[in-house]
Amino acid sequence: MSQPRVPGDDENTLELPCGRTMAAGELDLGMRELECDCGETHAVVMDVHPPERFLPDFLVEVLREAIETTSEEMPEFDTPHLLGVVLEEFPEAVVAHDASEDGDVGYAMAWVTEFDSRRLHEIVVELVVELMEHAVSHADDDEALSAFEREMVEFDVSEFVEQYRAERDLEAEDPYA
Questions:
Q1: Is 23 exposed, middle or buried (0-12, 13-18, 19+ CB in 10 A)?
Q2: What InterPro entries does the annotation carry (predicted)?
């Protein structure tokens, strides 16, 4: 059973990247962006959002097969791993909120960024490309690395994100159907 909380209870408060605060329960499971009182738009991601929000199904499958996680709680590569990479790269621009003890909110982890959702999407794709390049470089196959690098010269992250978002129709009621 939920415990009543005192307004301003630190456990139920989320500090945004801009320094403002809000109640963690104000985050909605369908929320992808937050129009903040600071005048900026912050991207919102929750552990319940599938990684397919950012990457095609086939690529998520490849990442799940290729990446071994060290977490017993999250043994399969998923959204928390993607946001962990973003947080590692941009520690001052991402706020992570652990709500695993709060059964009222519907999520265990939430991340709010100083970026809007489109820019966050681009950053996720850029970091996954870097991860893939790093993996290919460890394959001891110079031809594979050269081929990958040639392909990436042609790859336009912004165009990919634009097309992927249009294909997924992120404004639809259920974009993952």
A1: middle
A2: DUF5815 (IPR043853)
